[in-house]
TrEMBL record, chain A:
Keywords: Acyltransferase, Membrane, Transferase, Transmembrane, Transmembrane helix. The lineage of its organism: Bacteria, Pseudomonadati, Pseudomonadota, Gammaproteobacteria, Pseudomonadales. The gene is tgpA. This is Protein-glutamine gamma-glutamyltransferase. Its EC number is 2.3.2.13. One of its GO terms (molecular function) is protein-glutamine gamma-glutamyltransferase activity. It comes from the Bacteria. Residues 419-490 form the Transglutaminase-like domain. The chain crosses the membrane at residues 21-39, 45-62, 74-89, 120-138, 144-166, 178-196, 570-593. Pfam families: DUF4129, TgpA_N, Transglut_core. It comes from Marinobacter litoralis.
UniProtKB/TrEMBL annotation, chain B:
The chain crosses the membrane at residues 30-53, 59-76. It comes from the Bacteria. The lineage of its organism: Bacteria, Pseudomonadati, Pseudomonadota, Gammaproteobacteria, Pseudomonadales. Keywords: Membrane, Transmembrane, Transmembrane helix. This is Uncharacterized protein.
Length: 695, 340
């Protein structure tokens, strides 16, 4: 270097310091992850919010491309105010999980306009990771779960690009690195998942959504259930320990409606208030007994469980609520799994109806439906209650009553219109009319609402009960026999009870007539059905074994392992696993380093050079160059002077050579030969010295 | 107390990382800690775990475990990114005091590639070095110098946060070689006359130092050191030793040619003169107290003179010195030391 060049060192070449704050690749992955994370919430978020998020993210991207500028402070404030105003206007003061989630998403969307530095990038990264966790609160379906994990992957690849923007082949290498990392850590994840103690919730957290869920409700107007029949959404899935009961016996009782309020059937008593329990989603564990069945119910935001007649609770998350009904501790805001046993004898075989109860089950509005009342009085005058029930069923069976999903509207005196004029209705109509008639005839009666039916899933391992299986039927009180199920639908349309709604309304062609996206609609396409059922099976197993892996199922699994582990032991095991993981990471890096050193011949040569010097009585001083060291060695042991200097020169040329060194190569061989020579010379020299004086 | 801890910590590190121009990074001398983002990430994982517990949500558990093990895996990756890497100083450069002095470094990756490595000393940073497995990369690290003399940062820091920036692994190279900071050249006061004299005096016989001193009576403004006090004691005459170099001999650049100027200023003048002479291709010698460089010409000679100017009166840093030497931080350190 010439002298004068010393004088302009000021402009040392620092060209690569001009890296943009956030590399485009990283930003792209971040935006991608955002999109993936919004997808599972599409039906939960207002459309304008999704649109706004898209616009804001695209704005950020265009700014990155230099086609647009990020907004200044005023514009940014303006955009924020406008969006918040729209939010406030649409939310209208309701506070639910949905509105909270919307606000969260809105905040993330606005953050795009502020993402300028690496620090902002990390802030967004953290928020999006938490958004992924929030997604899992609402969607546990395997497809959405995989999508959410894919989004996490995108985020982690984005981080890699952020940290090494100039690395060539970043995209592929990033995924490969991440994939390898996940693969290596997979055993630990599995162990942790299995062994991490599933503690009880720390505090009670309601997660009630304001969104209306499809499903039966606690009041029934004549048309209600026929609306439900247009939905093929899943209500619940059941696995039986023994064989599946016959189709006609699959009556899933949910709740009882016993109060007729004008045209609407309600529950007389509000559900008794019970302090909200903590989330308990775990069912009883262990294999199903012959007489047990296991229900995995979709969230309903209600507390009722659907059970067969004469069931007893076999898991701790359901409790009997009287009248052969069961309730959860808290509304089912996420998929819930429970287990029931089938009693061999009727459970609630009350022989007496108290006067209060009798009054309750005979309640009718003071007026209305005169023809039905007259018919009831006529029948009651001639017939015993049991005969009257049979007579009515016979009437339904023999006269031209139709079971239809397109009932005519019956505005006033609906029971009369149904029984005498139209004779067309759905289960809710007939159940309501029958109960009315029984009560008018002095027979205590009530409506039971729930589901009837259930189609086998893939392989027939379990039953799928869908919303269109929703059903309403009647129970009457007969002296000496207690509550007896009477289903007018069975009399009018036996195929509904024998094989389901599809068969019952086949002629009418009204099955799922408004639901074009439902797979169930296209019964004719076998392949489509097959795919649908397989997907459902995967999802079912996913929900039972992964999503549903909770306290009780964990303890059950553990009890099958030797050692009888409790929560405490699981805690120890978890700590052990984490410790082990750290240890393995440490050992692996230690070993790979050792092998690296072993491969580094120069390092080894230098090590043995140091040893030789030590033995020769001139220990290597730190920071001393090999040349100086060789001179000192030469001074101490002149016999090896020449080889020591040669060695030092060779080492020097290795370290300070301009071109990259040839790996291994001749240099190394030469160094080794030299070292051997030095050792030999030292040995000879040593012998001569020790023997010298003797001679 | 705090100072004591820092001192102990330093001592511990210095024992682990001996002073050397070559360092291979391994478990012995690598340090790894979460970054700020890493700490936040840990807190986030904790929050997610609590969410999972509270909502009995297996998938949140699963995600927490996946991210947690990714964190542990990243620890290994970040560590491996540096371990096996070697960093050596191939050459120390020269520069002007106050400027950045280049240190020529060579990084050699081990059997793993090293990605997004950052090498820094004080405020000067080289970022984003990628070294494929088994290959080498040469970089120049500018080290800010504080003043003329030897420059040796106590530590050159090597760091990586790859892949996720949640963890940082770092270590140091504690150089044993020092670079030189030349005096900053300043135009010498009577430069004009010197340059004019230059051509005609080129043939003049070289004169060596004090042997040819003239004696003349004391004048107002002469330095008292120049007064021949022995003669004054003998004869009572104030006589001043005035040697030829001081008159601006064109062959000799003389430390003593600038009466009244302070040492660093003189060296700066001389540095300017040396550069000037070299540019003209002139022949010149350098006369420093205690060191004389015989007249010669050419760039190599110029370099030699500059080095002599830079090192004059300075002691090279010793291995044991555990403080930065001649860098800007060293000034801070000494100020702090003075304040306490």
């Amino acid at each position: 270097m010439s002298l004068l060049s010393h004088f302009n060192l000021g402009q040392a070449d620092n060209a690569d310091s001009a890296i943009p704050a956030i590399p485009s690749g990283a930003l792209l992955w971040l935006i991608g992850a955002f999109a993936l994370l919004l997808a599972p919430q599409w039906d939960r978020l207002p459309w304008w919010l999704i649109g706004a998020c898209a616009v804001l993210a695209v704005w950020r991207w265009l700014a990155q491309q230099g086609k647009f500028r990020l907004p200044g402070r005023w514009l940014k404030t303006g955009v924020m105010l406008v969006l918040v105003a729209v939010y406030v206007a649409t939310v209208q003061g309701r506070f639910t999980v949905d509105t909270a989630a919307s606000f969260f998403v809105l905040a993330v969307g606005l953050k795009w306009l502020e993402t300028r530095t690496a620090r902002d990038f990390y802030v967004l990264f953290f928020i999006l990771v938490y958004l992924a966790a929030v997604n899992f609160l609402f969607q546990q379906n395997i497809v959405w779960a995989l999508l959410t994990f894919a989004a996490i992957g995108c985020l982690l690849v984005g981080l890699q690009i952020l940290n090494a923007p100039a690395l060539p082949g970043n995209f592929r290498a990033g995924w490969r690195r991440l994939g390898l990392l996940l693969l290596k850590t997979l055993p630990i994840v599995v162990l942790l998942f299995v062994f991490f103690p599933r503690m009880a919730p720390l505090w009670s957290v309601p997660l009630v959504s304001g969104q209306a869920r499809s499903g039966i409700s606690d009041s029934m107007r004549p048309g209600d259930i026929s609306n439900l029949a247009q939905s093929s959404e899943r209500a619940f899935r059941v696995t039986f320990g023994g064989s599946n009961p016959d189709y006609r016996d699959r009556y899933w009782r949910g709740l009882i409606l016993d109060y007729l309020d004008g045209e609407t059937w309600r529950q007389r008593d509000e559900e008794p208030f019970r302090r909200l329990g903590r989330v308990v989603t775990d069912a009883g564990a262990g294999p199903l007994a012959e007489n047990e069945y296991d229900v995995l119910m979709e969230p309903t935001d209600q507390r009722w469980a659907f059970t067969l007649e004469n069931s007893v609770a076999a898991s701790s998350n359901v409790f009997p609520a009287g009248e052969d009904l069961f309730r959860f501790d808290r509304p089912a805001d996420s998929p819930i799994r429970y287990r029931m046993g089938l009693a061999s004898a009727p459970v609630s075989n009350a022989t007496e109806l108290s006067p209060v109860q009798r009054n309750r089950y005979l309640q009718l509005p003071r007026s209305g439906n005169p023809r039905a009342r007259a018919l009831a009085e006529d029948m009651a005058a001639e017939l015993e209650p049991a005969e009257l029930v049979n007579e009515l069923m016979r009437r339904f069976r023999e006269q031209a009553y139709y079971y239809t999903l397109r009932p005519p509207t019956m505005p006033e005196d609906g029971v009369d219109a149904l029984l005498f004029d139209n004779k067309r209705g759905f289960c809710a109509h007939y159940a309501g009319a029958s109960t009315f008639l029984f009560r008018a005839a002095g027979i205590p009666a009530r409506i039971v609402v729930g589901y009837q039916g259930g189609d086998p899933g893939a392989g027939g391992e379990y039953l799928i009960v869908r919303q269109y299986d929703a059903h309403a039927w009647v129970e009457v009180w007969l002296e000496g026999r207690g509550w007896v199920r009477v289903d007018p639908t069975a009399a009018i349309a036996p195929s509904r009870i024998e094989s389901g709604l599809r068969e019952a309304v086949e002629e009418e062609g009204s099955f799922l007539e408004n639901d074009f996206t439902s797979l169930q609609r296209y019964q004719g396409f076998a392949a489509l059905q097959w795919v649908g059922l397989q997907l459902d099976r995967i999802n079912y197993q996913w929900q039972r074994w992964v999503v549903g892996y909770q306290g009780q199922s964990q303890l059950d699994l553990m009890s099958r392992l030797p050692g009888g582990m409790g929560l405490k032991e699981l805690g120890y095991i978890t700590a052990g696993i984490v410790g082990l993981a750290l240890l393995i990471a440490g050992i692996v890096s230690g070993v790979s380093l050792k092998s690296g050193e072993r491969r580094d011949g120069f390092g080894r040569a230098m090590e043995s050079w140091r040893r030789i010097c030590q033995q020769a009585g001139v220990p290597v001083r730190s920071g001393e160059t090999p040349m100086v060291q060789a001179e000192r060695l030469a001074l101490a042991r002149p016999a090896v002077a020449e080889s020591a200097r040669t060695f030092a020169r060779a080492v020097n040329s290795h370290y300070y050579r301009q071109e990259p060194l040839s790996q291994g190569g001749e240099d190394l061989q030469r160094l080794k030969r030299l070292l051997k020579a030095i050792k030999r010379q030292l040995r000879h020299d040593g012998q001569r010295r020790s023997t010298g004086p003797d001679k | 107390m705090r100072q004591g801890l820092i001192h102990q910590w330093r001592g511990w590190i210095n024992r682990r990382i001996p002073r050397s121009d070559h360092q291979v990074f391994s478990q012995k001398n690598l340090f790894i800690l979460p970054t700020g983002a890493g700490v936040v990430f840990g807190i986030l994982l904790l929050i997610m775990l609590i969410t999972g517990i509270n909502y009995q949500n297996s998938l949140i558990y699963l995600m927490t475990f996946v991210l947690g093990t990714v964190f542990i895996g990243a620890m290994h990756q970040t560590h491996r990114n540096l371990s096996g890497l070697s960093l050596s100083i191939t050459r120390t450069g020269e520069g002007v005091a106050g400027d950045d002095i280049p240190f020529y470094l060579r990084l050699t990756a081990g059997k793993d590639q090293a990605v997004a490595i950052q090498v820094s000393v004080e405020d000067s940073v080289i970022e984003q070095l990628h070294i494929p497995a088994g290959s080498t990369k040469d970089v120049v690290l500018p080290v800010p110098s504080a003043h003329r003399g030897y420059v040796r940062p106590d530590r050159i820091r090597i760091e990586t946060r790859f892949p996720f920036g949640l963890l940082k692994a770092w270590s140091w190279l504690r150089p044993s070689s020092a670079a030189l900071a030349y005096p900053r050249p300043l135009v010498a006061p009577d430069a004009g006359s010197l340059v004019d004299d230059g051509s005609e005096a080129a043939a003049a016989k070289p004169v060596v130092g004090q042997d040819n001193a003239d004696l003349r009576p004391f004048r107002e403004g002469d330095l008292s050191q120049r007064v021949m006090w022995k003669r004054f004691a003998r004869s009572g005459q104030m006589v001043v030793a005035d040697w030829q170099g001081e008159q601006g001999s064109p062959h000799w650049l003389d430390f003593n040619a600038f009466p009244g100027a302070d040492t660093e200023l003189r060296l700066s003048y001389l540095a300017w003169l040396v550069a000037d002479r070299v540019q003209q291709g002139a022949r010149f010698g350098l006369n420093l107290p205690g060191e004389i460089i015989e007249p010669d010409s050419g760039y190599a000679h110029g370099d030699r003179c500059m080095r002599a100017l830079a090192a004059w009166g300075e002691k090279p840093p010793r291995d044991q010195d555990a403080l930065p030497f001649g860098t800007r931080k060293s000034l801070d350190a000494s100020y702090k030391g003075a304040a306490e």
